[in-house]
């Protein structure tokens, strides 16, 4: 059949259909590559791989037996929207829901210190126990700016608490697993700060996989319907906003050092199973103590504009010397007000309403939210200032009063 004889509109229709199909496939491939979508087959493939390593003696950890031989860990479900991870999937361990995450292969710019060295005969030489603990101590100081106690070093240097591997070869494999996992900011924070109950509880490991408690991500409110929020919906939004501010106060006023959340999204906050009164932050890859994020931002690298000195939502400034020399300038509440409470703005105009933008938003609340999202009223650059204590208090008190008002209307 001669395609030239096909009527013009059919020819163009087919061409457009092919273009749409190709575009759709390309988008799916990109979303899959970036980790925004995934399939349960991937979860099973990763489990099969780590279990194969476990059978060969290379993968170790308290979760290997229930995952690979007892099969008491089942019902694997791939979790999407985790673009920074190699893989993330949830599973049932008997009656407990847990989330598995994998060690992320680092780019060349983030390569870490090697665990062992290889001699001319290609023989691997591993550190002694004291040397290994010294390496871990240096890593903890570098990543979290704390001096690890002897008890913490023992906890971090072994995969199972209270279990000390006596077989030399098995201990070397264990060291390999431990050292890879310790490069993950999320793994390290989950263990070091597990007593603070700020982040998902650490469960255990198998090879380069580690598991934490399952926490329900906060669903993004239906912003397109924000103008028609009923009283119940608006009351829920107010309560959630108050919980987020309370959580920020917790991470900023802990006994060690103020934490910064440098990649803030509403679904990075979540509630533990069976306790919807408490919030936890789910994605710890970009959570840092203040001293560490300030060191990252003020690394003296070349810059042309302020944005060159940013780390996701944590912002600094480019100096007159065209260097990143300043510490972190904004704070957690500014980020939350800008990205969650207020919503997406363009040239000062709200395009997609945030959590607290609705037809029920009062003029006074809208003013406070704009001031909170942009404390210095910068119209040229992204906001780079912290929220003052006075503004923070006014916003919190207003939300508390509004919550009481709408709670009374519901009764």
TrEMBL record:
It holds the Pfam family PIP49_N. It is a single-pass type II membrane protein. The keyword Transmembrane applies. Keywords: Disulfide bond, Endoplasmic reticulum, Membrane, Signal-anchor, Transmembrane, Transmembrane helix. It comes from the Eukaryota. InterPro entries: FAM69_kinase_dom, FAM69_N. The chain crosses the membrane at residues 12-35. It is found in: Endoplasmic reticulum membrane. Residues 4-159 form the FAM69 N-terminal domain. One of its GO terms (cellular component) is endoplasmic reticulum membrane. Belongs to the DIPK family. This is FAM69 N-terminal domain-containing protein. It comes from Aphidius gifuensis (Parasitoid wasp).
